[in-house]
Amino acid sequence: MTPFTYFRADDTAGALRTGAGADARYLGGGTNLVDLMREGIERPRTLVDVTAVSTEIGDDANGGLVIGAGVTNTALASDRRVRTRYPLVARAILAGASAQIRNMATVGGNLLQRTRCTYFYDEAAACNKRVPGSGCDAREGFNRIHAILGASSACVATHPSDLCIALAALDAEVTVVGPDGERRIAFADLHLLPGETPERETSVRQGELIVAVHLPAPPVGRSAYRKVRDRASYAFALVSVAAVLDVGEDRVVRDVRLALGGVAHKPWRATRAEAMLRGRPADEAAFASAAAAELADAVPLRDNGFKIELARRTIAAVLHELAGEAA
Fold first, then answer.
1. How many CB atoms lie within 10 A of CB 284?
2. What is d(CA 70, CA 276) in angstroms, rounded to the nearest whole number?
């Protein structure tokens, strides 16, 4: 174990004072970071415990919610406002992990969790994310769970969070504070595609602390979160779909939100499919063609080509279910 210094912050200012160093990490529930430290993948010299910072959920003036980064996943999923106004969020959290992990994991930590790629966790393997410039053994290795969209020659890992897929579909925003002050990041810009720098996973800068997630007023329509995985519980998604669908009395799609998990290095907002569906009849043909268009640029690896058809079918099935409910 690499020696480290531990601080417990009581407020944002205290966290920033001790967390600005290059070798410092903010610690939420620790359900990912502690595992990485045990494996020797992360070696922070300073840990700043922020579990006592930003722990409230509040209404905002525009009909949305402000969720503190220190709120646990259990508290978020069980909040009455979330269950009634944003059921998509609650369903994604409940699909994500065991009750014990949800009790510990925080919203801010969930947003920043790192990939569960086997090669990233294996110090004997080449991984550009862990050691930039070392290569990517996953490309020619066992890559059944890896990315089919937005990957690069440097990295084919996928984003692991379920909550983030729901937040991407809902157009959430994230507030961070750091040495240069406060800024707000659109959720679509929070996570990065790998490109040639897969070690940079988010647009959060060194020393910055996520303090809140902002949900806008709930979108009109019905929502669903469907996660396809190898076993019924406590497994990462092969493909997941977060969807909100608004269908008019004329059975025409008025609005749609779609985000995909398990297919890319970041939560994948299916903007191509959304654009094709708006103003179209809410029928199986439209759903199937939109799903196919979204997956048209997918690039399979040796072991994960099945994800393309799985994603197509899951998108179409979720939209069909929501259109039926809206009838």
1. 13
2. 38
Cα distance between residue 302 and residue 142, in whole Å? 8
Q: CA of 233: how far to CAs of 177, 228, 249, 302, in Å?
A: 35, 10, 37, 26
Model pLDDT, residue 327: 57
Specify the pLDDT at position 71. 98
CB 198 within 8 A of CB 155: yes
Asked whether 195 and 147 are in contact (CB, 8 A), the reply is: no
326 pLDDT higher than 70: no
C-alpha 196/C-alpha 191 separation (Å) is 15
Strands 253-261 and 181-186: unpaired
Question: pLDDT tens-digit profile of 53-63?
Answer: 999 999 999 99
Instruction: State how far the alpha carbon of 128 is from the alpha carbons of 133, 179, 260, in Å.
Output: 5, 28, 24
Q: Answer for the pair 48, 9: CB distance below 8 angstroms, yes or no.
A: yes
Q: What integer pLDDT is reported at residue 2 of this predicted model?
A: 81
Distance of CA 325 to the CA centre of its chain: 26
